[in-house]
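User: My collaborator sent over this chain with a note saying "see what the structure looks like." That's all I know about it. Can you take a look?
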Amino acid sequence: MLKRLIDIFVSCSALVLLIPLLFFLAVIIRLKLGSPILFKQARPGLHGKAFNMMKFRSMTDETDLDGNLLSDEERLTPFGHFLRASSMDELPGLINVLVGNMSLVGPRPLLMEYLPLYSKEQAKRHNVRPGITGWAQVNGRNTLSWQDKFALDVWYVEHQSTWLDIKVLILTVLKVIKREGINQQGQATVTKFTGQSND
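Assistant: Without extra context I'll predict from the sequence alone. Here is the result:
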């Protein structure tokens, strides 16, 4: 209950304070990347129940001659990279936190297609609400292997507390300032999880 009250208070306060920045980013994104301004995608939440996660879009919709989307590397513009590096693309997620789909801190919501690929241990990450940031994000973020990420997610689920959440939030701010762990080496975005033990 305390965690939820903190989520509501912080997300509501942040959204009010950040209205000018959110409006400014929305205008720039519309001009540079087009519409829609928000990227919405079904992600698994608490107990694996689907919800629409919101982020600012960071890629264009450019396609090849056959109408197929270009690779993430080709569609991720310098401005889009800046949004991701600064984590400003995550700001709309505060709305998800406010309505209760997400928490400020928790395992990051991944893709729905991953649900049947998890081991019983890895699936424990869905025993809590997913978070805008999490224990894995402050301990390597996207430079970690999938197995390490899931191990950190499960550790958080089994050791969660208000003080741990505060620690994660403080470390998140430091990571964002230093822009650490944004991408895996040689990748514009994170490689897909296949369920294989060597991932």
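A starting point for your reply to your collaborator: The CA atoms of residues 17 and 78 lie 27 Å apart.
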